[in-house]
Amino acid sequence: MKNKVVWIGTKESDILHTNHFFSNSITACGSGKSHNISFSVSQNRRINYNVNNPEYTQFLLKQMEMVVEKDSEVEFMYYNPYYAHLLNPVLLQHVCCLNSKSIMDMLRSKCEMRTLAAKYIPIVPYERVLGKELYNKLNLCFPNNGKKYIIQQNISSGGEGTFVISDAKETLTCSENEVYLLSPYYEKNIPINVNFIIFDEEIFIFPPSIQIIQQINGKLLFKGTDFNAEKYANYLDKEVIWQNTFRLASALKAMGYRGICGFDYIQTKSQLLFLECNPRFQASTYLLNLTLEKEGLPSIQELNYMAFNHRKAVKFDAYTLNVTYSCIAPSYQTYLKNSSIREEWFQHPSVFEILTDGLKADMHFVEDAYLYRVIFSKSITDITPEFDLISYDNLQTASEDWYKKIISGDLLALKIGLLNQGIFISKAALNFIQNYGGIKDSVFDSIDLILNNGIIINCPYKINYADFSPFFLEYFSGQLELHYYDKCLGPVSLEPNNPDKDRITRNSNVPYRRLSYSGGDRLRIHHTDICVFKRGNNCCQFCNLPVNGFDYTFEDIQEVIDFYLTKGGFRHILIGGGSESISHESDTVLKIVHYIREKNNSPIYLMCLPIQNDAELESLYHAGITEIGFNIEIWDDKIAKKLMPGKGRISRETYMNALKNARKIWKKPYSVRSLLIVGLEPAINTEEAVHMLCQEGIMPILSVFRPLPNSQMSEFLPPTNEFLYNLYKRLDKICNIYNQHLGPNCTACQNNTLSLPW
């Protein structure tokens, strides 16, 4: 291989895993050290390289001329070879791996490529429209039908020039004689990118990647890649992707095109549609190089060089490469000032590497400027039951609308953000907390944060990517503060740690924490050592309760109850946490209730499996149970059986009958409840469940799915903030119809539910 090839591209890091093929690099973003010449370092600013920048263009020309002066045999390889055609003849002759300008012009044109592609494979339908005709065309397309459309500049990249339009009044400022594409907006789709290299005699097609696209300020911008497409086998047909790519790539090959190229598709619920062609290296190429290097194979850049020099490549099955990496590539948003990187990210177990490309905190940043890339060793995306492609909110940039909700004091948005994204605790805050008794672990690997207005919110800090949360605890002048990006949201406090949780019972040496939990204004008593479904190896997949039971006696429970009744500090009592065998669960509960009632008259709330026997319900009521809940959790029976193989065998009908029977006995409003988990089934199911519960006088309680460590679903993604916000609004309206509320009715106990004080 040659060693006098210089890389001309957007990022220095693009050539990190290319087997030292390049002698030097000249890039928009880079370290400016060793063999890199960096525009961003030389100017101390980051640009949006997807938008034409004359100053950067002149910088490249000057640096390339200096390189040629020193070495007349040097070759330049471009990330985007089209721009080489804009060079003067002297520099152009030093460019390698270059297709003709006429071919490049055609492939870069979204209109021409869709016209060509339509001869071979299905495409996204479109209309070619001049800027001066766009407004009239939009008025024709928007006869108050509520549909959305995509407007694209004919030539653009990275999502720049691609806009979602939902109203003709949103017409953008357009150049009169510029060509635009007007296409229907497929809101439910999976964006796909495929890298391929055309040789003289063959075409190397690499595995497809999922593109992470985010709508920011009306634009659909590329924000990352996930190569773990195998997890989408139920939605994507890799054979169809390969065949469509091969058909169209073969047409390009016949036209004389050589080297690296990429196709973008979208997978709808029914078909794969071609979107556009990128006759250049791809943003996803870097992750392929990581895998090729690991397998001892040439990089994409080296293969590209071989293709143009009529060499035969090393024989390997490119399409079956096992690429497991994913990445995010945030861009700068002025409203967030989001240019910083936490040092804790580098130690995160799922982070393979972080590429900063010379990023410095004191740089000047333009809007949408590239910041850095975080490479993960596993998948960071998922498909929701509604067929929406999502990534972790902590790995995405908050939209300006969502950011404004948080900083303006929208309590619902704040609670959803903290519940869902969790919180990062700075070293200073952690030291302060540890000096005052340490962190009090709440349920679900979290802490309970007390806002300045007294509202308690359960914030996970051990879940996947909590270190990336834009919410963080900081410590200043003897006070804990809650921050969101660059804004301080105000002082907060934490519940003090429970010094008694590790006390041991006299009878069986059982830690108090295995039999109880004290938090908020409630004391929880566990009525079983281990959930019956854990014992039977058919537990709920989202649960991380202990698998191993422990030996205890009723005297141990009595001791714990006596201790906390004497200590006080709670308003009411909950009996529950794990399920006991349905045949004798109520007997155990009755013993506990009778014992409590001998000494205390606090309200008692029972959560257990549905009780079918009316006599048992009557006994519990008269013994002193003041509130009762049978938690359905998942409304759809099929999904329930899949995710709750033990508990899911109890039908929805059984739950509803038990709840309705309980409602006849507990007549006080809000005294009969059922909890539903949001995010594990289609939202329409949850809406139906809330309707059914409310019309029977049963209070619905919403728990947001949280991928807990050590559970079978620890790698699943939670629902997005926006999804939860909109769903809450719909469900709250349903409750209002029936004079109900999203529970519970205890403000302190709302800490880990999707609810607000009322």
TrEMBL record:
ATP-binding listed as a keyword: yes
Occurrences of domain ATP-grasp (ranges): 113-308
Keyword Ion transport: no
SMART domains: Elp3
Residues of the Radical SAM core domain: 515-745
Record keywords, A-Z: ATP-binding, Iron, Iron-sulfur, Metal-binding, Nucleotide-binding, S-adenosyl-L-methionine
Protein name as it appears in the record: Radical SAM protein
